[in-house]
Amino acid sequence: MSLHSAASSDAYLPPARLTRLAFDRRSAAFDRLEFLLGEVGQRMQERMPLIRIQPERALDIGCGHGQGLAALRAQYPDAQIAGLDISGAMLAHAAQRDPQRQPGWLGRLLGKRPTFDLVQGDLATLPFADGAFDLLWSNLALHWHPEPHLVFPEWHRVTRQEGLVLFSLFGPDTLKELRSAFADVDAQDHTLRFVDMHDIGDMLVNSGWSTPVMDMETLTVTYETPERLLEEVHTLGGLRHPPGAFAGMRGKRWRAALLAALDRRRNADGVIPLTFEIVYGHAWKLAPRVAQERDAEGRAVVPIDRIGRRRPPRA
């Protein structure tokens, strides 16, 4: 397979409990998707030099197998890094990236404290204190939550004043070729739907985040066989049913028609393209502005006891 980039309805998602169980099952095969997660994560990192921040504590939300944790550790070697995922199986894989968690003499040699902390939890009910982190990072995870409008207020709660959230997620055009192929064989919706970029921006503002910046690009992944395409979309979580279930639910003839519909979408190079719309966003948690006193003529008044007062240091 190969990957190319080009500038460039409401979401239906299962409850969080089902999402946890689904990703527990998919975790063993998730390594095959690291090319996509790594590519998008690298593009997120390329945005970081434009954002000046040196966090003391950073959290990777939806950390999966820990690829982002390693990237955050490399970029911020002095920061305390934590990872959260709803799937315990995903976290078990992430722990394998941490040499200080390894058993035997290697772990003892490197010390007992892990390189990063790992916590199981839901994106909208984070098990952390208010203002616990300077930086929240989330790569291709937010779109799996059934109620994203509840996620951003919780992320805002655990972020310090002047802290930053930086994330990526799938947009509505993701899997459009696959939806088109399904439409050739029946009128039902077999893929998940994703929230529009502008709606995500509105959610940020309504949750108290300041100066949100949103942008989007499309990545095209190509597949040599329709079977491999279906398998990877299922591992990623984009299908409502496993590929193997289609034959049992609809019959072998229906499945053959779906594979043929995907085959008809081969491009001039003889491969099947699949679009992923990647939405990027970042926003700041800023202290609310205090209304400035004014005199009778409308001029700003600064009380004498505030002159020269500095912002108190962080705890």
TrEMBL record:
Keyword vocabulary terms for this entry: Biotin biosynthesis, Methyltransferase, S-adenosyl-L-methionine, Transferase
Pfam families in the cross-refs: Methyltransf_11
GO biological process, one term: biotin biosynthetic process
Database matches in InterPro entries: BioC, Malonyl-ACP_OMT, Methyltransf_11, SAM-dependent_MTases_sf
UniProt pathway: Cofactor biosynthesis; biotin biosynthesis
Listed EC numbers: 2.1.1.197
Residue ranges of domain Methyltransferase type in the record: 59-167
Molecular function (Gene Ontology), one example: S-adenosylmethionine-dependent methyltransferase activity
First-tier enzyme category under EC: transferase
CDD domains documented for this protein: AdoMet_MTases
Reactions accelerated catalytically: malonyl-[ACP] + S-adenosyl-L-methionine = malonyl-[ACP] methyl ester + S-adenosyl-L-homocysteine
HAMAP family (UniProt xref): BioC (MF_00835)
Family: Belongs to the methyltransferase superfamily.
Stated role: Converts the free carboxyl group of a malonyl-thioester to its methyl ester by transfer of a methyl group from S-adenosyl-L-methionine (SAM). It allows to synthesize pimeloyl-ACP via the fatty acid synthetic pathway.
Name this polypeptide is given: Malonyl-[acyl-carrier protein] O-methyltransferase
Species per Swiss-Prot/TrEMBL record: Cupriavidus gilardii J11
